[in-house]
Amino acid sequence: MITITSQAAAKLVEILKQQEDPDLRLRLFTTKGGCHGFTYGMAFDRERRADDEVVAQNGIEVLVDPVTSRVMAGAQIDYIRSVSGEGFTVRNPNAVETCGCGHSFRTRDDDGEPDPCEDATTN
Asked: Does residue 114 lie within any of the structural domains?
């Protein structure tokens, strides 16, 4: 199961209130791609699909598709503030390899579909 910390939930409640749409839910998803095969994503969604898992914690409903549920089983979504900034972070126990920025990962059982990394030094 995916967990949402109280800090992440508080921030999400704040953002959802600004949207002024009671039908919006948070959708947590992964897409194939990135340096290591999968990338994380979060968006607001009105549509609950028949195969979605619904995670309800700390006043937040999160919609999760079956692939994301599998590759992120046991993950924790948190919201952190530090001197360098603030934002949501994912702690995914299934990620056996991640990129430097933390947005791309692969699991032991699924490589996803890695995209070739572009070398920033070339023009």
From this structure: no
